[in-house]
Design brief:
This protein is of the alpha+beta class. It has one domain (29-123). It has 4 helices and 7 strands; from the N terminus they run ααβββββαββα. The strands form 2 sheets. The chain has a 5-stranded antiparallel sheet. The chain starts with 5 loop residues before the first helix and ends with a helix.
């Protein structure tokens, strides 16, 4: 039996590949597990270094969204690294509807581990 490379096995676990190894059209951006781990909106206001729970990104463009809080429905608060890097609000519906330069959908980083905001900001500092 031929086994898939580890990256394909990981994608299969995440629901990105079907049993024949064909890429599915859309990955699930917000799993129930992640939804349960995201604190409610405004709950981290007084935390000087809140935990970033998950990361979304364009595979074909430079924008990245880091979720810190979620309203349980559609609205996130987090860190956005695009043309500028800033804290702000973004929506799940916005992430689901947008496409990158080559028409690729936004994805969730399957390997991202919850990380303090200060560490995420360091990754995007510009020299």
């Amino acid at each position: 039996m031929i086994y898939p490379p580890p990256i394909l096995a990981k994608r299969a676990e995440a629901g990105q590949l079907d049993l024949r190894g064909e890429v599915m059209k859309c990955m699930k951006l917000l799993t129930e597990e992640i939804r349960n781990r995201l604190p409610p909106l405004y709950s981290q206001e007084n935390n000087p270094d809140p935990l970033v729970i998950c990361k979304f990104f364009y595979p074909d463009f430079s924008w990245t969204w880091y979720a810190i809080e979620f309203d349980g429905n559609d609205l996130f608060f987090g860190y956005v690294a695009g043309f500028e890097c800033e804290l702000g609000y973004f929506t799940l519906s916005e992430l689901l509807s947008n496409r990158g330069q080559w028409g690729l959908r936004i994805e969730r980083d399957l390997y991202f581990e919850p990380t303090p905001l200060s560490e995420v900001k360091k990754r995007h500092e510009r020299a």
